[in-house]
Write a structure and sequence with these properties.
Elements lengths: L3 E6 L10 H15 L6 E7 L12 E3 L8 H10 L6 H28 L4 E3 L12 E4 L4 H4 L4 H4 L3 H13 L4 E4 L2 H11 L6 E3 L14 H10 L7 E5 L8 H14 L4 E5 L6 H9 L2 H4 L2 E5 L3 H10 L2 E4 L8 H8 L4 E4 L2 H7 L4 E3 L4 H14 L13 H19 L11
Parallel strand pairs: 1-2, 1-4, 2-3, 4-5, 5-6, 6-7, 8-9, 8-11, 9-10, 11-12, 12-13
């Protein structure tokens, strides 16, 4: 039987300070490049951007457009300028933008066919714009599964998220998600056939491969004025759903009994940092004990994991979160929200609490301080990169007899 040729769409738009997404994307692509897939598969990368990208082991196909791919961005900038007040010009620009997009997509689809690509794979949640069979990645359905936080519903966020699932996920040839809890969400909220959903377990970021010398670790602790095992660590960007507010309320309870403790909050601002800082500034107990570390380099994240009393993660959103398995892999105790995906990942390793009950959060923090015992060993046979790559390999192999029921020319993309 002929091999199934799969093209992995690259999305080189993420930067190191974009959080766990960058670490996930980087490790996954490196892992795929180094992994030996079964003989029935041919894996290539597809670069549709103007950036030059090369891989060590697998071929990277570069699409050379006949029109500049950034023309649409230029058109949008013009529309946002003085021409937006002239309806005639605005209509013309809209037509030009659509025409450019149509021809670009057609040329890209022709490129896929010319390279005999049979299936596209988006390894990062991405809108799938091409008339071509594809595998899409699912992370969470926050606009449905949790509360109506601003980032889920305001500024057209709800509609954009809903459109992604209606127009991309529902039409996908197959869907890759990170846990059985994530699979269940897709079935429950969007009524998607469970046989089209494949679990590709989440894995920890590159921080677990660090090896920071004890002297450098001590320098890091001194930088933030920390004492080993006398602080809690929460690495999370400042979104409302990350629940920093209730964490600060819980930490105030901790300070009543242990005034020497600190709370380290790392992560970039997503609109809520100013509010959380104001909450702490207006509270004398929190003012000098909550540390806003900003974006923290990988070596410092490693140090904070290795020296914290515990990772504390009161997020409202699951089903999975990368810091949980990073901390567990490095032997850092974990206190986190009681979500099905979190229990699936960590089992008995973590302590779980109700994320909207600050007293429950505080109770788990106090329990960790007073017991000061290492948690049970973490069973990482599922949520690791090796198993994720194996799962991708097995999922693609299952798709072969389905995708091979039609040829490349039958995509009818014209």
């Amino acid at each position: 039987m002929n091999k199934l040729k799969i093209g992995i769409i690259l999305t080189p738009i993420y930067s190191p300070n974009s959080g766990g997404g960058y670490s996930f994307h980087t490790r996954l692509l490196e892992g795929i490049d180094n992994y030996t897939f079964n003989n029935n598969l041919e894996i290539v990368f597809i670069n549709l951007s103007k950036n030059q990208i090369q891989f060590s082991h697998k071929q990277c196909l570069h699409f050379v457009p006949f029109l500049k791919p950034d023309l649409s961005d230029r058109i949008r900038r013009i529309k946002m300028g003085f021409l937006r007040r002239v309806p005639l010009f605005k209509k013309s620009l809209n037509k030009l933008e659509k025409l450019h997009s149509f021809f670009m997509h057609k040329k890209i689809e022709d490129f896929f066919m010319h390279e005999k690509i049979e299936l596209l794979y988006y390894p990062f949640p991405s809108y799938c714009a091409y008339n071509y069979p594809y595998v899409v990645t699912h992370w969470d359905i926050g606009h449905m599964s949790t509360y109506s936080f601003p980032e889920m519903i305001m500024n057209n966020s709800y509609q954009e998220r809903h459109d992604f699932y209606e127009k991309s996920v529902k039409k996908a040839f197959a869907i890759f998600c990170e846990s059985e809890a994530g699979k269940e969400e897709l079935v429950n909220y969007y009524r998607i056939n469970s046989q089209r959903i494949h679990c590709i377990p989440l894995f920890p970021g590159e921080v677990i491969a660090c090896n920071v010398h004890p002297d450098l670790q001590q320098a890091c602790l001194q930088k933030y004025k920390l004492i080993k095992s006398r602080f809690f660590f929460y690495p999370a960007q400042f979104w409302p759903h990350k629940n920093h507010y209730n964490l600060t309320r819980a930490f105030e309870v901790i300070l009543n009994a242990y005034p020497d403790f600190k709370l380290v909050l790392s992560g970039s601002d997503k609109g809520n940092l100013g509010y959380i800082k104001e909450v702490c500034e207006n509270n004398s107990a929190l003012k000098d004990t909550v540390i806003f570390a900003g974006f923290v380099p990988t070596e410092e994240v490693f140090t904070l994991y290795k020296n914290a009393c515990a990772l504390i993660m009161p997020t409202f959103l699951g089903p999975t979160n990368m810091p949980l398995i990073e901390a567990a892999k490095l032997g850092c105790p974990v206190l986190t929200s009681d979500l099905p995906g979190h229990r699936e990942m960590l089992g008995g390793y973590a302590q779980y609490f109700n994320p909207w009950d600050y007293q429950d959060i505080a109770a788990k923090m106090l329990h960790q301080i007073n017991n000061d015992a290492l948690p049970t060993s973490f069973n990482d046979t599922v949520f690791n990169l090796s198993n994720a790559l194996k799962s991708i390999d097995e999922a693609f192999e299952k798709l072969i007899p389905i995708r091979k029921t039609w040829g490349i020319d039958s995509t009818d993309h014209h």
